[in-house]
Amino acid sequence: MGNTHSRSQFAQPALYRILDANLDRTREGIRVVEEWCRFGLNNAQLTERCKYLRQELAKWHTPELRAARNTPGDLGTELTHPQEETRDSIEQVLQVNFCRIEEALRVLEEYGKVYSTEMAAAVKQMRYQVYTLESSLMAYQRHQKLKQASLYLVTSPSETLFNTIEAALQGGLAIVQYRDKETDDLTRLSNARKLQQLCQDYGALFIVNDRIDLALAVDADGVHLGQQDMPLESARQLLGPQRLIGRSTTNPSELDRAIREGADYVGVGPVYETPTKEGKVAAGVEYVQYAAEHCPMPWFAIGGIDTTNVQEVLSAGAQRISVVRAIMQADQPTLATQYFLAQLNQKQTLRGSRKVLSNGHPVTEELWS
């Protein structure tokens, strides 16, 4: 096996058992991730990467190592922890298994240096590949959720903040942005942690307004930046490739720049005047029409949208909207959320059901732009 070190007769069985156990642990963890890539995401590329890693590890899992296995005599089989008994979400399942894989690969690398320097070098490279896989998987999941989302809630300070957000999530809300310009940092951090957990429980994306440090501290899905905030390139360096970055835009020039800079989504507005953006001149539905014709990424019409004007915004070409007061100040946030989603779904259904002829056969137009 390329071993360049002598092994005592006493140490060899323990070494083999360590390698055998961690090869099993790594391959099992990768298989858990692979099943989600295959059946949960239907992503052939990610599934193939998982399969490749498993097969590469199998080359090192020799009969020699398997023969050292002693399950009845393994003290570790009796050890457990309450946190291992339940998982709150698919995301947690994946996160736990990635941690298990990475820890086991480090064990294989270190003990592999005694067993086989060739194996240690190969496992080291696999560990870096797993880090990349983890980032790719998280980024893919977040972009899929973003693509599928049509209603985006931006919070405002409220004595019933958590109850309101949970009620909206119960109504089907897919994205929450925590925005609070008034409170101190300790309160913001506490609120952001609670909201992040709520969103995770309901499978929604959680975005933090402006504050990259706060987003990282609570493991948010991303940040939303205004025109006067940090440049998008700098934000990407701090956040990494796996998190989402949104950008507010108020005119075609700002929209075009956000597209060039690589924003993951944009806000388009304010469509109407709103106290949330005091002093901002309304961009109007004309800007919504421009975005509908020119924006290739997910975009959300925002600014003063409520039950009285949402149809006008949808008629201008919006397929996604963002609201603040219409839900945050609603008497029944769940019903308000369901109302907006019903309007959005109806619009998408009508658009998706339009037929165009292709070679004499009717086909459905793409639902998403």
From TrEMBL:
Its cofactor is Mg(2+). Keywords: Magnesium, Metal-binding, Thiamine biosynthesis, Transferase. Residues 130-369 are annotated as: Thiamine-phosphate synthase. GO terms for cellular component: cytoplasm. 2-[(2R,5Z)-2-carboxy-4-methylthiazol-5(2H)-ylidene]ethyl phosphate binds at residues 274-276, 304. NCBIfam families: PRK02615.1 (NF002727), thiE (TIGR00693). This is Thiamine-phosphate synthase. It comes from Phormidesmis priestleyi ULC007. The lineage of its organism: Bacteria, Bacillati, Cyanobacteriota, Cyanophyceae, Leptolyngbyales. The gene is thiE.
